[in-house]
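To start, an entry.
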Amino acid sequence: MPPRRATRAQIARDAREAQDEHVQPAVPQPVAPQIDQDAMRQMIQESVQQIAQETARQAAQEAARVAAQEVARQMAAAQQVPQGPQIHVQQGPQIHMQQVPPVQVQHDHQAPAQQAPAPQYPQVPIQPVPGVFQVPPPPPVIPVHVPEVDETFIRVLSQMKYVNLEHFSGTTDPTLAHDWRHSLDKCLNTISCPSRHKLRIAELYLRGDAAVWWDGVRVMHHGEMTYEDFLYAFNKKYFPREALDEKKNDFESLRQSGKSVREYEHEFRQLHRFAGIGMDEEDLIRRFLKGMRVELHGRCSMVTYTSLEDLV
């Protein structure tokens, strides 16, 4: 009996060993790497942006193609060509449309006997396409008025810089007013100023009270004024008739008295500008001798003079 029990124990041990041989050893499971959440989020955002850009590009191309087909359809309608099926456009990222069949045009190679005039078709306005950005029309061209430049006036104005004409601000001395008017005429004649520009040049040389006076004359005068109108108004204001009569009286009553011959001759010529108009050289000599002192008058009367310069 004891040997049999030992055999059973041996059998049980052998059975356990055999079972252990068939059992595989435990294999350690691999550890999953840790995922970077920020990198994963950035990759997802970049993918979404790329998908959105691609979708927008495809939508823009599709919209441009739809607009081109709409223009072609309207042109075909203007030429009385059978119209294709209407384009249905739905708003959204995806645009569904039906293609317009191509227009069949027949070419006649036979030369006509007489060329017919080209038919006139009415212009069909292009209707806006929903979902497609419409480019606004260009603004209307506003004509710009460019003033004409008078080259002659520019030349006259530039030449006036070299004649040194003084500005006139008004005066109560008739002689100064007469001298300025005489200088103005002389300068305008020197530069060969056309008559149509003389008034504008004269206005540019008025200052102060004279400019205010002339503005008032222009307001009171109705219509266009000329340079002759300016001279008439100028003489009436600054060299009236009373001043001219006074200069004539001074010329007739001029005497040498205690002045030298040169001083007497200078004053004589100043007054001669106003009162001696129309006198010849003989009359001037006679009038000059009349105003000289008695002793000089008797001495000079014995000599015959041909000009006033010889007498002086």
About this structure: Residues 230 and 301 are 46 Å apart (CA to CA). Residues 37-78 form the longest helix (42 residues). The chain is about 55% helix and 0% strand. The radius of gyration is 58 Å.
